[in-house]
Design a protein that fits this description.
Number of strands: 7
Number of helices: 1
Oligomer: single chain
Structural class: mainly beta
Strand order of the largest sheet: 6-5-4-3-7
CATH topology of one domain: SH3 type barrels
Order of helices and strands: EEHEEEEE
Radius of gyration: 31 Å
Length: about 160
Amino acid sequence: MMPQPFRPATYNMGNGYPGLSGGGQGMPGSMTMGSMGGMGSVPPQVTSGSPMGPMGTVMQAPQQPQFEQSYIENILRLNLGKTGTFYMTYENNSQWNAKVFTGVIEAAGRDHIIISERSTGQRIVLLTLNLDYITFNEPLIYQYPGVIGNPGQGR
């Protein structure tokens, strides 16, 4: 049995679509992929939610300023090098239920904060799971959509 040669699919556009009556190969009134009035054979890449114009063209949305979402790790990353007092609670701990740490913010991740104590030079990894709140004795840098100004920059 001989393999059959590839044949592009044809679509009958019928009389209900003015201006799309054919021009492709095949039967009259049919159209092959890519023969739609010189539009090319590959449709444009469209991302989900892209606005479309009246002729099916993709419209470019205006660029929005990029802000990180206001998660605690992002706020702490904006304030690396600042000293904070971290209030932590440890449930079901027989030695201490609550503990306070003071140190310079060195790094912050999704589930942890790394601080260093100036007096000892010791680095401490704190889990945000146990974090109650943090206090600072200086202005913080804080960027969030809808917030005007940046207190850490003297505005």
